[in-house]
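Predict the holo structure. Ligand: pyridoxal-5'-phosphate.
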Amino acid sequence: MANPPKVPFLDLVAPHSELRDELLAVVNKAFDTAGFIGGPMVEEFEREFAAFCHTKYCVGVNSGTDALRFAFIAAGIAEGDIVITVPNTFIATTEAISQAGASVTFVDIDERTYTMDPIRLRDYLENNCDYETATRKLIEPKSKKRVAAIVPVHLYGQTADMDPILELAQRFNLLVIEDACQAHGAEYYSEKDKVWKRAGSMGVAAAFSFYPGKNLGACGEGGAITTNDLTLAQRMKLIRDHGQAKKYYHDIEGYNGRLDSIQAGWLAVKLRHLDEWNESRRSLAHRYNQLLGELKDSMILPIESTWTKGVFHLYVVRVQDREAFQTFLGDAGIGTGIHYPVPLHLQRAYGHMGYQPGDFPVTEQVARQIVSLPMFPQMTQEQQDEVVANISEFIASRLAVRPELPVS
Ligand SMILES: Cc1ncc(COP(=O)(O)O)c(C=O)c1O
């Protein structure tokens, strides 16, 4: 049998072992009441997660993908609409747009933050679209479609630069729906409002994933939508439950997209630890920055802009010779990942969109170089030292070449 990794990419056993009794109590409660779907455990978690995100409402759903899809549908996004997002994200972002009936348009990311570049967004809105003042509609003449919404993705646990994105959305009458699936608890400093804001509280709605490996993960599938808009929240509740507010009375066709009560109960237990776990991720990330600082000429470390307080869902570096880097670390028992190896516009699933290599050069360049290092709240300093020692050894073992896109 293969030896267990010295440093796993992610340890999902430790956090659950620590909370075993509390988590099992949730199962017992569900068994005692046979309350498996909906009910008080879901409602309690929704209240607590809304408070955590500084929003008025939270609607628990089956996954982050459902959260995005239901948010789009509830916000009225439909066939004939264009939704703008980035090509450097998980495919769920664009699947949900397509499944709501809309078309996807990409704008490239910022090379330093890996999130939507507001300058490229402005360029697309100003130069590729016509704004009809009378109807307050933004039309893309090429497709004659209405541009309806922007989906910034708070990738790797860091928020997108929301002030300029929200300002553009207001100017062109567009909705902003945040993909906060990797950013539970991340914060953004709004220079405009002079206040720190939580991921999930800045758009008209936001989607969260509780996939087990996320900063707040269920013990299975789960997701949530946050919003300050009561009408939207009510519509999302209908959509997640076959369009019914009262059993067997269907106002609309919906989906089976509810959050299980056992998952909600587990999430409520884990939510109490989330701030502390996020702090631990931040400290580990800062320690990585410090320890890897000497290797700055051979790798690009993550940059935390002054306007974001990231929660480091992932700690992503960029290296020149990624395959050899991953093999070296893998042989030393250290897990790594790539988020994501193929930009969405170049995925086979989107071949019909006609994008070509070179269309989004920053995303493409980044996708060739990124590696996610081990990152989880229970990682010990010894484990982290082991990762850093092996990276140093790898770099010393070859004449490292500067990455193609040095950070200014
Ligand atoms: C950025 C992003 N969006 C959406 C999703 C979809 O979430 P889920 O897997 O819960 O459907 C994920 C999950 O990996 C994600 O990372």
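The longest strand covers residues 145-150. The mean pLDDT is 95.
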